[in-house]
């Protein structure tokens, strides 16, 4: 893995920021991205599909954006639910800095961009949204799912978007087999080669 891959903890490249205009929660916003983060020039197709097909988030509670990158999902959630607390989690410190910058640009005080270890262990989540980092490998991806999905509150949902040819169907089968019986995984949407999965905890 090269030192400047988007899932490197500390990219070794010289920081080069750029401004892009994106639509989040129905409005255009000018935000900051940079090299050595995921999809720095635009909102990637998978995230666009997730934002289109996932329902409006709950009004309050702790939310999780797992693998937040420069922040489109976390910022969307924070704009949609200003009374919530949105935990934006990534391994890439540059990405987390960009989330903090973009949250400040939008005047959002309800976004916490942190490493996984900095999320308090006693917090459970009203919703989890993720365009998970499939390319980290199956074992690491499964570890992320086993770590975070059990932290859903009762009667809460996670929304995941995965490209079909990168294993969305196999991940759906794995979730159904590995999560406790109180979890149900269903395919809620298909668009542009991506699947949106809902994981409901009863």
UniProtKB/TrEMBL annotation:
It holds the Pfam family MTS. It comes from the Bacteria. The keyword Methyltransferase applies. GO terms for biological process: methylation. SUPFAM superfamilies: S-adenosyl-L-methionine-dependent methyltransferases. InterPro entries: RsmC/RlmG, SAM-dependent_MTases_sf, Small_mtfrase_dom. Residues 30-197 form the Methyltransferase small domain. GO terms for molecular function: S-adenosylmethionine-dependent methyltransferase activity. This is Methyltransferase domain-containing protein.
């Amino acid at each position: 893995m090269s030192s400047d891959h988007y899932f490197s903890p500390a990219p070794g490249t010289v920081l080069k920021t750029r401004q892009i205009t994106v639509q989040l929660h129905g409005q255009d916003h000018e935000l900051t991205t940079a090299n050595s983060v995921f999809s720095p020039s635009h909102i990637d197709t998978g995230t666009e599909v997730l934002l289109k097909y996932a329902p409006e988030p709950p009004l309050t509670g702790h939310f999780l954006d797992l693998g937040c990158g420069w922040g489109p999902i976390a910022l969307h959630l924070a704009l949609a639910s200003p009374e919530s607390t949105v935990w934006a989690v990534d391994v890439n410190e540059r990405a987390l800095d960009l989330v903090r910058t973009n949250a400040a640009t939008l005047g959002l005080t309800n976004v916490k961009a942190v490493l996984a270890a900095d999320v308090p262990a006693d917090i459970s989540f009203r919703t989890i949204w993720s365009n998970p980092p499939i390319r980290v490998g199956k074992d690491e991806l499964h570890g992320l799912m086993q770590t975070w999905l059990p932290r859903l509150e009762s009667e809460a949902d996670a929304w995941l978007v995965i490209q079909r040819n990168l294993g969305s169907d196999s991940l759906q089968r794995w979730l159904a087999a590995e999560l406790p019986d109180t979890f149900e995984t269903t395919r809620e949407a298909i668009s542009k080669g991506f699947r949106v999965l809902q994981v409901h905890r009863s």
